[in-house]
Every structure is written in C-alpha cells, then in structure tokens.
Amino acid sequence: MSVEILDGSTVRSFVEDEGAFNSSVDGRFAALDADHDGLLTYAEMAGELMSLRVLEKHFGVDDADVQPDELATLYHGLFARFDRDGSGEVDRDEFRAEMREVMLAVANGLGFLPVQMVVEEGSFLKVAVDRELGQPAKAA
C-alpha cells in the first residue's frame, strides 16, 4: 500500500487511455479466470466482489447488523451488473464495460480537488496514479 494524491482527472485520464486501461482490466480479468476459459463465474469473482467491502463501517469489517443472506444477495446483485447479458458468466467485454463505469463513477466522486488516499499496489487507482506520474505500471 502507498499514500497517493489524486483527483478525478487522474482516474478519468486513465480510463480514457484505452490501451492502458484495457491492459490493466484484462490483466485483472485473467487473474480472476481460474479455469482460463475466458469467462468469469460468480465463484471466480466472489472474492474480488467481497473485497470491495461495500458495507464496511469499521476498517475492514462489514456492518454486523447485516445478515449473511443479505450480503449474499448484495454480492450476487453486484455480479449481475457485470453479467450484462444474464448468461451467468462475465466475458471480457462485459468486465471491461462495467469496470469502465465503476472507474468513471470513482472519478466523478473524487471531483476536481486533489485528495490523499491509501491505495493498494496493483490496484486500478495505483495504476492510474503511476501512469500520470510516468512510472511503469505493475501488474493489476
């Protein structure tokens, strides 16, 4: 992990650089595709979805008031956003499209004022910052 300074334009510029963005997203897709069939199942994506900590309230701990079945429903709903054709699997194009939307939403949320944040090595945000600074990107 590292502390970085970024704003919405850092992320937006990364997303708009189709080559850099697709390369990073494709790398993450390949890492998740455990059986190398070119498709992601819910089981292959579950860990990644859960790492988003969408209900986190206390530094890495999900809200204790949420029942496990509610969390499962939430994570299946997130998977469904990636699975745009409803096939039960996510192909590379679906993954790219949803990651593009997610990253643009992050860019819009960050706005135009620089913020300091902790980012994980290899994360899309770290790749965006390194790209802006002209540093070689590490695998996502």
UniProtKB/TrEMBL annotation:
Residues annotated as domain EF-hand: 78-105
Keyword Calcium: yes
Molecular function in Gene Ontology: calcium ion binding
Cited Pfam families: EF-hand_7
Keywords recorded for this protein, A-Z: Calcium
Listed InterPro entries: EF-hand-dom_pair (IPR011992), EF_Hand_1_Ca_BS (IPR018247), EF_hand_dom (IPR002048)
Presence of the UniProt keyword RNA-binding in the record: no
Gene3D superfamilies tied to this protein: EF-hand
Entries under PANTHER family matching the protein: CALCIUM-BINDING EF-HAND FAMILY PROTEIN-RELATED, OS09G0482800 PROTEIN
UniProt-recorded name of the protein: EF-hand domain-containing protein
